[in-house]
Specification:
single chain; 212 residues; secreted; two-stranded antiparallel sheet; sensory transduction; rod-shaped; disulfide bond; alpha+beta; TSP1_rpt_sf; signal; 3 domains; Hormone Receptor, Insulin-like Growth Factor Receptor 1, Chain A domain 2
Length: 212
């Protein structure tokens, strides 16, 4: 029987004009649909979005997914498809993947990512493979890849990094210390000025004797 525009009694074992299906035929799922202030029962082959089919000896029912932001679920606590913009992770729907997992955009899923260990201590400050002879150098620390990612397309975090450091010894023991290039230039310039001054002084003395 049809009551109104919708065949609300289709697949029913028992039906009410006001409340729709009350019991469903075997293998169908009972779903209580709400439209504004009105609600009525329907018998469906599969449950709508946001619900999952729960089979019981008494009657199969459509139960609501209790997982936040879930579009369809396998059971009360396990989502199989999340709403748009959310990643599926172990039956849950998340805005972003947790630590140790990487987002696969085409599937909107979180898969096991590249896992790295703890950073080592900073290494010795050096430059050009020497630990002395310079004022500044570089020190490096590293970490190991503990677990490779599930997919080769997922990159691993950086496993080595360097930073500027000050040498413990500016001058190498037993080595010949050389002045920096700037110091040499200053010394040479000072020497040239002294020679020029002495030359001008000699010319002045010679001119003064001639005038006498």
């Amino acid at each position: 029987a049809n009551y109104g525009p919708n065949p609300i009694c289709k697949g029913c074992l028992s039906c009410s004009k006001d409340n729709g299906c009350i019991r469903c035929q075997h293998k169908l799922f009972f779903f209580l649909r709400r439209e504004g202030m009105r609600q009525y029962g329907e018998c469906l082959h599969s449950c709508p979005s946001g619900y999952y089919g729960l089979r019981t000896p008494d009657m199969n029912r459509c139960s609501r997914c209790r997982i936040e932001n879930c579009d369809s679920c396998f059971s009360r606590d396990f989502c199989t498809k999340c709403k748009t913009g959310f990643y599926s992770h172990r039956g849950r729907c998340l805005r972003g993947c947790p630590a140790g997992f990487a987002a696969v955009e085409e599937l909107m899923e979180c898969v096991e990512g590249c896992e790295v260990g703890q950073w080592s201590e900073w290494g010795t400050c050096s430059r050009n493979n020497k630990t002395c002879g310079f004022k500044w150098g570089l020190e490096t620390r590293t970490r190991q890849i503990v677990k490779k990612p599930a997919k080769d397309t997922i990159p691993c975090p950086t496993i080595a990094e360097s930073r500027r450091c000050k040498m413990a010894m500016r001058h190498c023991p037993g080595g010949k210390w050389r002045r920096p290039a700037k110091t040499k230039d200053k010394k040479k310039k000072r020497k040239n000025l002294m020679e020029r001054a002495q030359k001008q002084h000699s010319i002045f003395l010679a001119t003064d004797k001639t005038s006498q």
